[in-house]
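Justification of computing resources. Each target in the renewal requires a structure prediction run like the one illustrated here; the chain below, 187 residues long, is used simply to show the kind of job we budget for.
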Amino acid sequence: MQELKAMANSNGISGYTGTAKALHWTVVVLLIAQFILAWIMPEIHRDTPVTALISLHFTFGVIILAVAIVRLGWRATHGEPAPLDGMPPWQAQSARIVHWLLYGLLFVVPILGLINASWRGMPVVMFGLELPALIAKRAPGWGWTGDVHGLLANYLMLALVALHVAAGLYHYFVRHDGVLQRMLPGK
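Resulting structure tokens:
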């Protein structure tokens, strides 16, 4: 353990800030809840009424977007720890690419979902307040947003999350280099 601590500290930064960790794990919990809601809510068709599960899915999407904005702002103003000594450059660059793709999806997927809700005329209500529609109901040229929302969330985001988790586990169990520990709470 002392060796991991020394290795992590050799770059001058031992890990992510407490705020970065809290935002990261908040997004993780929100995404798990969001995917559960997406899988158990009714499939949305042309005249599907907004059920409690669909409304919760909308709410979680807006919350994820809000937390992603805060998280990206935090990262922009506080940076990230330098790659650990001994990490191959391709791994550091791959991690950076996967992180930025995940950030992009945390913005694009909820925005597409909100646009599609507007296109379908489905109100997005949060804490008793209806959010304004982003586009007019059945606005020409926007019907594709629901399909792309689903494809990005169900395939690309899940694939990137799986890759991100697998990389963390690889660093923990195979490389023993402290990468995963830098994002764990209390470390």
